[in-house]
Amino acid sequence: MFSKRNKFFLLVFFVFFSLHCSFSQVFKGEIIAGGNVTQVDGDEVYGYRKVGVNAGLGVMFPFNFKKGSNEKRWAVSMEMLFNQKGSYLKNYTGINFCDTCPPEIQCNPMIKYKVRMNYVSIPLLLHYNDKDAWIFAIGLSYNRLAKIKEIENGIDNKDIYSISTIINPSKKNIEKMLKGRDALFAKDELSVLVDVRFRIWQQLKMEFRFEYSIFPVGLRRFHLADGVEVDPYIRKQYNNVLSLRLIYMLNEPKVIIEKKPKVKPENKIYYY
Predict the structure, then answer these.
(1) What is the CA radius of gyration of the chain?
(2) Which of 22, 118, 134, 218 fits a 20 to 30 Å CA distance from 255?
(3) Are 61 and 76 contacting, i.e. CB atoms less than 8 angstroms apart?
(4) Could you report the per-residue pLDDT of 119-175, keeping only the tens digit for each?
(5) Measured torsion, CA atoms of residues 136, 197, 142, 112, in degrees rounded to the nearest 10
(6) Is there a contact between 145 and 187 (Cβ–Cβ < 8 Å)?
(7) Residue 9 lies in a domain
(8) Per-residue model confidence (pLDDT) at position 240
């Protein structure tokens, strides 16, 4: 049987299409396909090296603040996405990514570090349409961690501890949450979004998006710094995501391209 959370996601999915079908003259549908390059700030592994999928469906409601105007410059939208985030590093000779391992694990800088987090994301955005050429948006996204896999110094961490949320914990609470372990991840994430999209052809658009966690998505205790054992220190972790997406709009009128009339040869004026 479905869990309560799965039922919630199914309900959101049903609402998407119910709205689109019931108000097809008002709402626009979105078919979204794209990818992410991501990093986890606070894991001592730097660079947008982890590649992931960003795909799903959306619904948009255009409106205008000015009454009586047919030109709708504003819109609100909601999406439901499969959204992959994480971090990746291999054969790195700078700051040793073995810093993420406790001292009892033998360090091998030639073995990769990788964490892959699969989220179900529900972004809510406010859009501004600049003369149908560029569309700018800002919003928030609720992200539910569906699956996580971490390979640390070549070892697959199968039993990863996770809690519901991590909201600005105090040092005392951090120590309590990490008691008996070196890392944990949050099941729920709230992030801020900024994006810009433009038309490629007719209903097909391209979009660039930046996403960042508002609250920590993880906590980790480090035992090494540059490969040297130090007093353990703890860092909060945040998802940092860049996305490139293609969006096909449903129920959006095609752009009419005016063609210049051809001038017949007999109507041309020649100068000598």
Answers:
(1) 24
(2) 22
(3) yes
(4) 999 999 999 998 888 999 999 999 999 999 988 766 777 667 778 888 878 888 888
(5) -130
(6) yes
(7) no
(8) 98
Structural domain that includes position 79? 28-267
State both tokens at 81: 């996405």
Q: Is there a domain that residue 92 lies in?
A: yes
3-state DSSP assignment of residue 50? strand
Q: Is the dihedral of CA 144, 149, 152, 157 positive or negative?
A: positive
The pTM (predicted TM-score) of the whole model is 0.81
Quickly count: other Cβ atoms within 10 Å of residue 167's Cβ. Answer: 11
CA 234 to chain centre: 25
- The list of the chain residues with pLDDT below 70 reads 1-25, 67-70, 91-111, 153-154, 158-159, 224-228, 256-272
Is the distance from CB of 98 to CB of 43 less than 8 angstroms? no
Would you state the pLDDT for residue 58? 97
199: number of Cβ within 10 Å: 16
Position 244, amino acid:
L
| Domain tally, the chain | 1
Among the residues of 27-113, which ranges form H helices?
Answer: none
In a domain, residue 129? The reply is yes
Contact by Cβ (8 Å): 79, 123: yes
- Residues, the chain: 272
